[in-house]
Amino acid sequence: HNDEAVFEDGTEPLIADATYEELTAKPLKNEFTDTKLYVCTFERYLEICRDGNMVCFIEFKGHFPDEKIDEAFRMAEEVYDLKMCSLQSFDLDNLIRAHKAFPELQIMLTCGEPDEDVYKCLELGFDIDMAHSGIYKKLVDRFHEKGLKVLLRPSPYICSEWDLGGLPSRLLKDREMAIRSSDSKYLKEVKEYYDRLIPEFL
Description:
Order of helices and strands: HHEHEHEHEHEH
Strand order of the largest sheet: 1-2-3-4-5
Largest sheet: 5 strands, parallel
Strand content: 5-15%
Shape: globular
Distance between the termini: 31 Å
Radius of gyration: 20 Å
Structural class: alpha/beta
Number of strands: 5
């Protein structure tokens, strides 16, 4: 998911520039347990999901050619069960081509704003994964009426890949506020956010 691998020894090579042998030679940084963790292959990931009877989330970043889509999901069919796999991507074209080749695959568009791709998902029968700030209840209801899922990210901080993690940039105007902390001014903003959010969706 990240651009760099962070190893126990402090090195952080770019994944795109490293060989598989280099990425699997050393344990990854792990601050949570004493277990040594290593980069695994896609096949091993499928085996772990299969053995734990878990949904296997697969994310395609950027454009994936048809042969890579075919290779990934042929392996998923052999090792596990396509009905237990869910493909996510910001690229609607990846999802359309994967769904055409593997119709039993669960499909989810990851997006920030309700643009035309979101409405195409309604027509195509694809689920969506979206920040709360970009969606409204009537749209969620339309997806639910079609039996589709909407994965909302209700936290004020959504994802490190988004500008300011999804927090509103206006928070930067107050130079004394420590965002993503227990600062009382920041917590007041968080409370106001949830006070608006919870009645709208619950």
